[in-house]
Design goal:
The protein is mainly α and 125 residues long. It has one domain (2-11, 37-120). The protein has eight helices and no strands. α2 (20-34) crosses α7 and α6 packs across α7.
């Protein structure tokens, strides 16, 4: 799953560093939703179908933007998950399964992380 997310992420934004520990924590928390058979294929289809919106997301919230330097988030800049490969997974889940995502996230990771991602990703199906 991580390999697919990294490949898709780098395909959209080019080579970017990311917080490996944060990636592990988020994907670990989401494992009940993303370990089902065929999820990597579903993520790939989603990214290909939403490439324009995802590029807008990275343009507005990605590396080098004002949001990348805003220290008001957890524990650093706001919207940090946009600049992480697992942000693609979160965009897919916010679009297709927001309620299971919220239930799985609740109490596991800081709410501000998911709240920021939800604010940055306004595209719903």
């Amino acid at each position: 799953m991580l390999e697919t997310a990294l490949e898709l992420f780098h395909g959209l934004v080019g080579p970017q560093q990311h917080d490996v520990e944060l990636t592990d924590a988020v994907l670990g928390a989401l494992s009940p939703l993303i370990t089902e058979p065929g999820y990597t294929d579903a993520l790939t289809v989603f990214v290909r179908a939403r490439e324009r919106e995802l590029r807008e997301l990275y343009r507005d919230f990605g590396h080098g933007t004002t949001h990348d330097r805003d220290p008001g988030g957890w524990p650093g800049p706001r919207y940090v998950l946009v600049r992480q490969p697992e942000g693609l997974v979160l965009a897919e889940l916010l679009t297709r399964r927001p309620l299971p995502l919220a239930q799985t996230w609740n109490g596991v990771l800081p709410d501000v992380l998911l709240d920021d991602m939800a604010m940055a990703w306004p595209f719903r199906s």
